[in-house]
Amino acid sequence: MTKGFSLLYSRMLATLLCFIIYGCSSTHTLPTATIYPAKTDTAAAYNYLIGPGDQLNIFVWRNPEVSGSFIVRPDGKITTSLVEDISASGKTPTQLARLIEKRLSTYLREPIVTVTINNFVGPFSEQIRVIGEATQPRAVNYGQNMTLLDVMIAVGGLTDFADGNDAILVRIENGRQKQYQLNIEDLIKSGDIKANVDVLPGDIIVIPEAWF
User: Fold this and answer.
1) Which of 101, 119, 137 is the last residue before a domain boundary?
2) What CATH number does the domain containing 101 carry?
3) Tell me: the pLDDT tens digits for 149-182?
4) What is the pTM of this model?
5) For 51-94, how does the pLDDT look when each residue is reduced to its tens digit (9 = 90+)?
6) Where is the SLBB domain positioned along the sequence (predicted)?
7) Burial class of 169 by CB neighbour count within 10 A (0 to 12, 13 to 18, 19+)
8) Where does residue 5 rank: exposed (0-12), middle (13-18), buried (19+ CB within 10 A)?
9) Which of 32, 49, 127, 194 is deepest in the core (most CB within 10 A)?
């Protein structure tokens, strides 16, 4: 077998192996993530919404046997002593209380329900996601009147490789993504308070890496 034929044979074998490994299982492109806009468009209009993982205390007046503590399941529902699969995620505690009252009225006469929350998580659509060159990139639970500075404190600030003044904030407005420029480096390293801005539930903050 000549050297040239051997090289050609090796290339053909490599091509055949690639076809066997990759050709039999084609890859597909997944659809873009579904947009679930937050239900708050201004800081003044914010109301806490229940989400999966929240621990709820449900008190039914004069009916302790159907009261109790319940965890919202990953599917956003809870099951109480008398009512199964109540949708809780995305509702305020008051809205959920009225729904439970309606469901319990089948079994109890004029039930009065109060819902309180112990462990606050909230729906993903209401959380602020920070990705990129933050010290601790993560999802941050929104709190009323939260600002960019509050979020950056929660994620530990910028890394040494961050380009904070080229960061962007992605926000869903009228069903579409809109981007805003952020000057995070001026805010937290130079103390420029004018660079501080209000954030809203559902915001995504993207911090790129600097080019040195």
Assistant:
1) 119
2) 3.30.1950.10
3) 999 999 999 999 999 999 999 999 988 899 999 9
4) 0.81
5) 999 999 999 999 999 999 999 999 999 999 899 999 999 999 99
6) 128-207
7) buried
8) exposed
9) 49
